Structure formats: C-alpha cells, structure tokens
Amino acid sequence: MRDFTYGNPTRILFGRGQIEQLAREVPAGARVALLTGAGSIRNNGVYDQVKAALGERLVSEFWNIEPNPDVLTVVRAVTQIRADRVDFLLAVGGGSVVDTAKAAAGLALTEGDAWTILSKGARFTAVLPLGVVLTLPGTGSEANQAAAIGNRATSQKIVFLNPGCFPRFAVLDPLTTYSLPPRQVGNGVVDAFVHVLEQYLTFPVGGALQDRLAEAILATLLEFGPLTLEKPDDYEARANVMWAATLALSGLIGAGVPQDWTTHNLGHELTALFGLDHARSLAAVLPSVLEVRREQKQQKLLQYGARIFGIRDGDETARASAAIARTAAFFEQMGLPTRLSAYGIGEEAIPRVIDQLKAGRRLRMGERLDVTLEHARAMLTRAL
Which residue of 43, 46, 160, 300 sits 20 to 30 Å from the alpha carbon of 266, by its own alpha carbon? Predict the structure, then answer.
C-alpha cells in the first residue's frame, strides 16, 4: 500500500428530517446565499423546509443553475454574492449546484478572470464557508474538495481541487430524492459506480481494505440501484444509494491506491463538446476503456469479476470479458446506453475529442500515466 494522508472535514447529517439541523449548522446571523437549480425544490417541499430552518437569517437566493454548470453562471453567482455581502453559501441540489457553489465560494474572495483562475487550478487562498443540502446523489461533491465547471464558449470542462472547498456539512435526507425522474436516478447510480471503478480497477498494491470498501460500495449500488427505479418510494433503497454515492468519492477508498480517471477525462470532453449528461458519457466510454486496457488491468478485472459478479469459471480472458459485459449490462439496466451512437455521436466526433485532450494537455492518462492519445482514439472508436 502506498503512503497517504487522509482527512475529510465534512460533517454528514443523514436521515429523515435532517434539514431542520440547518438551524444549528448555519451560523446565527449569517448572510446566506441559497444556490439551487431550476425549481424542483419548490415542488418537493425542500425549499420550504430549508427556509423554515434558516429562520430569520438574511437569505439571498440564486436560482437556475444548469446541469454541467457553465462558468458564466458561476460569475453571475459571484456578482450577486458580492453585492449582497454574503458570508455563507448553502447549496441545495445535486452535484452541479454544489460545484457551482464551490467555485463561487473561492471566486467571491479572489480577483481576476474566473475561467483563468479555475482552469489554472483554483488556488484560492480564501474561501467562503459552504454547506450542502443534497437532493440528487451521484457526484459525491457534497463531501469532497473537487468541482467540475464548464465553458460553453470554448467547449471545455475542467476539474479543480481545493481543500478549502470541502463543505462544512452536508444534509443527506433520502426523502428529498423521491421526486427525482428516472433519468436522474439512473445517472446518479452509474456516476457513483464509475467513481468507484476509477479508483479500484487499476493494479494491486496491497490495499486490501480499500478494495473491500470499494467492493462493498459496488455491491450496494448493484443491489439497490435498480430498486430505486422499480420502487421509487423504497426508503432503504434510496438511503443505501445516497450513502454509497457519498462514500464513493469521499477520498476514503482512493487513499493509498493508484487511480485511473481516463474514463472521466474522455467523458468530460464529450460533455463539453456535445452536451451529453456526465454519467451517460461515462457509461458509453468505460466498457471500451476496460477493453483497451484489459491487459494492464487484468488482475483487478479478475478480482472484480469474482468478488462482485461471482465470475469464476473459464480462462482469464473469458472471465475478464464477462466482467466488462456485466458492467455494461448494469448500466443498461439503469437506463444508460453504453454506445456513443445511441446519443447520436459518430466517428466524426473522435478527432474533436482528441484535439480537446491535446488542448487541455491530457497527453498521458491512467493509473500509470501510460494512456496516450492513440489509446484514447482506440477507446472512443470501440465505444461508437
């Protein structure tokens, strides 16, 4: 196992009625910016719960944060935060809302061009405090230091990490997810599943506990993910998926082990260029990434197949192929096609993705930094 330093300061408040805890978690007298999406929280009662819990605190509301948030949305949020002299941010929504809040929390206290700052690593020296009320599990952004922001003008998408962007707390009430449409439910489950695989399907380094923790999350998503579609009001299914998605990218399972993220690098470019849902870009690309890199990932693929799917018969090639096929089948079961052609993306898209990878200097990717642009081209071609 590799050496590591692990810490996660986010306080998790999990379960029914936990939104009430905002009264305690948000400082009394805080000037709060409530950041949220297109308005679903008005329909499912979350908005009313949040407002009631915040009581007499001054609240500035910023609405209409879009999926795969654009830097111009972040800039508008920052302008309002500064104008209203906000000193605490509350993100109420899914990963896009949380990521926007993280970027705004740093940019509000930083001078300069927003996109330049974010694309150069978001090295904020000061960040406004941030809390989260999660309504869409999947990204794990509610309990980590990462955020993904796009630039539609240049068809780019970047990910930054800043330890100041860990939320102070995250409220996870599974009841808030009951009103989600099936598409968002499926996206969230697959997003979390791929987060785990990016940290798990690499090569062995003796991280036995990390492997077992990752496998527990995968098994939980496989068991309860389909149930969230079949029985939308099954509390235990919703609760298990919500907690699994948070743990999938909290830093715990990736501590001391190699990580890949090739699928995410390719997926981000597909989202930036074609507006594809983040999780759907991952579902379309991951099986092909595994096929192209099966030799390098063979040991972990066989372990994954045996421990998660019970695949123990046949030679190593057959078992690895079966593990990849079962993974793709799970994505399809959750409603996410695993071919780019299903999203109207054809061969002509590949040079554009490669050019974007070059522009972003993603010339070497993967757990060994040996995934080249030619490998990426082969992955995308296989994914068509």
Answer: 300
